[in-house]
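User: Good morning. I'm curious how flavin-adenine dinucleotide would be positioned relative to this chain. Could you predict the structure with it bound?
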Amino acid sequence: MQKTLNFDYLIVGAGFAGSVLAERLAGAGARVLIVDRRPHIGGNAYDRYDDAGVLIHPYGPHIFHTNSAEVFSYLSRFTEWRPYQHRVLASVDGQELPIPINLDTVNRLYGLNLTAFQVEEFFASVAEPVAQVRTSEDVVVGKVGRDLYNKFFRGYTRKQWGLDPSELDASVTARVPTRTNRDDRYFADTYQAMPLHGYTRMFEAMLSHPNIKVMLNTDYREIVDLIPHGHLIYTGPVDAFFNHQYGKLPYRSLEFRHETHDTAQFQAVGTVNYPNDYAYTRISEFKYITGQRHERTSVVYEYPQAEGDPYYPVPRPENAELYKKYEALAKAQPGVTFVGRLATYKYYNMDQVVAQALATFKRLQERETARPELVEV
Ligand code: FAD
Ligand code: UDP
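Assistant: Good morning! Here's the predicted structure, ligand included:
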């Protein structure tokens, strides 16, 4: 008789959701197998050096920002940080203007010289009355009026989502604030920093524990019936887990076009948005984001797609309805926990996924007392 490996937890997906849970559970004494169908850990936050030796984010630019001291201090166990405040310009009417819309955006776009106080009056004068803010159009026209909406939001959103802003929940464009001052940072969070040696190194540190085994290039369905395990933690798309039995839950995809240029600098800031021209939404230049010095530079163009790897849940009422049906199925599976952006169909940033995983760990700890014994076969 031969003893086989026996895992207390099988975790599907080695992104933030799966890796945080693997680290927490292993630290609490559980034996964990974490499986990812991709050839690497880190999920969409994975980074690597490209052929030119530039650190890139293969799945698009990932900038870490959070207001949560708990999340920041938890991740600080696995990485040092480099302070970084992201700046974005939008290419509009032949100029590159700050987005989020601020005092300088308005002054430069319209050739004005307003003060912060006057721009507040300006916004009030152009804003459209919206009785109840429901959609992504309502949010913007209700704050800055139709012209700024058309120039900065309508085209970008239609490209990014394949939907008009009036068809998307308010929460989507509400991610981007409006400012009356000259603050041109994309985020206003308390903590804004990048892992000093990159995300992948941080994930390696999280998963480097004798209780954690990592299996890559493997869809969990290939091994789930072969490897004895206790509780399952699933971080992939929730509809796929249930074989799309209620139909496909829409996830928006992207195609990334990576380029390296023989120049030290390609553009003026980390990201330039193209709301109205081209098939891509934005170009990001990694060296701004990572702080790397290199004589060449690498950039990525993002082309939104309906089909392909699932990247974004699509926040709108009919999708929330369909997700509810899958959520009910998920809740009826006591042996499985669903966590992360794809499995809970939430447009979460990295820090929100970490917070969700930490909260899930606490719940699992309360619930799990007994652990299965080694199985003899
Ligand atoms: P994921 O990272 O998607 O991990 C899920 C993993 O599960 C994947 O690796 C997948 O391969 C694996 N998997 C799925 N199904 C299976 C299966 N059947 N078998 C085995 N493995 C499976 N957030 C920020 O905070 N700041 C940003 O600047 C930012 N920029 C972003 C830019 C883009 C283009 C995108 C798409 C997202 C961005 N995000 C950003 C969001 C961030 O990527 C997510 O919040 C975070 O990565 C989600 O982690 P997760 O573990 O839930 O999911
Ligand atoms: N958005 C826009 N114009 C911009 C930037 C953002 O219309 O210049 C809208 C668009 O709908 C986008 C959403 O605001 O999907 C959220 O923007 P964010 O930069 O947070 O998107 P992400 O980085 O998650 O792709």
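The chain has a mean pLDDT of 96. The CA atoms of residues 73 and 373 lie 34 Å apart.
Let me know if you'd like a different ligand tried.
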